[in-house]
Amino acid sequence: MTIKMGTFARTPVGVVVIQPTQYWHKHFFSDDITVNKIPLEVVGNMYNSRLNVSLTDKESTIVDISITDEDKQRAEDILCKLIDVYNEQWLKDRNRVAESTFEFITNRLNTLSKELGDVDQKISDYKSQNKMPDIDAASNMYMAQNSKNNDQILQLNNQLGVARYIREYLNDHSKHNQYLPTNTGIGSTGIETMIDNYNKTVSSRNDVLVNSSENSPLVQKFNNDLAQQRQTIVRSLDNLIVQLQSQVNSWQNTEALTNEKLAAAPQQVKQLLSVGRQQKVKEALYIYLLQKREENELSKTYTAWNTRIIQPPIGSKYPTSPRKNIVLLIALAIGVCVPAGIMFLMQTLNHTVRGRSDLEKLSIPLIGEIPHFLSGGKKLWKRHKDNAKRQVYVKKDCRDLINESFRVLRTKLDYFIKPFGADKKIILVTSFNIGAGKSFVSANLSEALALKDCRVLAIDFDMRHASLSTLGETQAQGLSAYLCGIEDDVTKLIQHNPKGCSFDMLPVGVLPPNPAELLLSPKMKEMLDKLRNEYDYIILDCPPIDIVTDTSIIKDYADANLFVVRVGLMDRRSLKDIEELYQKGVFKNMALVLNGTKYVSSRYGNFRYGYSYGYNSHGYSSYFDNKGSYK
After folding, report:
1. Which of 61, 92, 369, 517 is 20 to 30 A from 618 in CA distance terms?
2. What pLDDT digit, counting tens, does each position of 313-324 carry?
């Protein structure tokens, strides 16, 4: 909708008027303006949480009020308005007491005015009927004494009348929780103090009642306090009335003695004096109440504030928050501490093998490290997809990181088994855990050995999962068929160059129900003795030793045993079990292959850097650019 500047417009969120500020610019004419309406209670709670009120010190009467806001002028206006509202509210509270006192005095004056009129009429009628003359001079002395008695009785009756009226006022249920009159001249400082405290409690209750109901616990507490105070005041008034009545009786007795001496005076004079006394009492009380009413009106006319502003609200020229330096410092601390803490927790809570350094305390020789990445940072196969995507990465004329790692393993393996004799060619590959990569190592090691023009046979002895068999063609007969006597010629079961590989493979075939019993067959030794003469290397892919007993049966036929340790999978606490097997000689000619490392180390430093020269010289992709920086 289109709105003219400075005019009111009715919108879905209410009436809106747009006024230009110092930030206004002409290009705003074509922009949309979004108006958000926030409920009043939400805004009040928001600024209430931003308001800070405190004393300058414990013994000071100076209050320091501050508020935090995005707009300096708005913050100053809020504080000024807060002070004005406080003063107005204080003045209203004070005037409530004055208005209650005025109402009480006015009602009492109306009653006295009527009573005085009746007394005056009675005196006038009495004198007319009895033709009463003035008081004889002879009675002046007694009259003087009588006048003194009258004065005392008058004063006491005034106090007694006020006390009874206040007691009746308190006992009137319709006037509960209302202000009591003050400065009534009751003659008791303690009762006047209790009335002032009662009025303060009524004021506090009324303030709370404005924002709550009669059923509020705080209002009920004030009601209970007021009831107790009324009972205390009533008891004090009862005691005061008894005391005043006693004094009145005493003075009346004195007056009776004086009146006895005036017995000679005409009965008319005595009657006139009695009525005149009533007239004087009421006249004195009437004048007294008139005076108090005027004083009360004067107090309402001029009332000084009970607060004084020492320093007006002034906002700072510079923002108090956020502080840029502190924010940057906190951000720097979080940026350093959080990653460091996460890395520390990851290292502390990680109980798996993390790299070659975890194997340095073992006495078992480490003959190879297989990286977790191919060239370009591409990851190898994942453990949960091994059976579905078995792949041989070692290829002829390929010089990437994975190929060089298996060539290093091939070379170290030759040096490792050479002292055992030329006929020692059966190598068992196993692990402690499922998914350590033993089938992966068996397949790629077989290909690496075959690439140097050796005859290599890989036999899948894992007759429960047949992981290595997935490299070849699916066939019904395999190792299990030979061991159970279905096929007598094992060479017929061998697959030559499965999927283009350079080595031969003997698959499992049909998974047997009793693999451990088949491995105990005498045909095992016959098969291996026959194959030993036909191949330069025989790789036995066996199941994990800590899961089934198959490997413990096959290990007696192996000339060397390779344990595959997978980084991030094997628990470091299990390394002592491998060390114990090595020390006890359970597996002869035992060595370790570390699989899944992120960095392959060598005596010359990082493995990747050491082979960068070879990659460039043979025309393969390098990990470094022409300037020598890492890609």
Report:
1. 369
2. 877 777 777 777
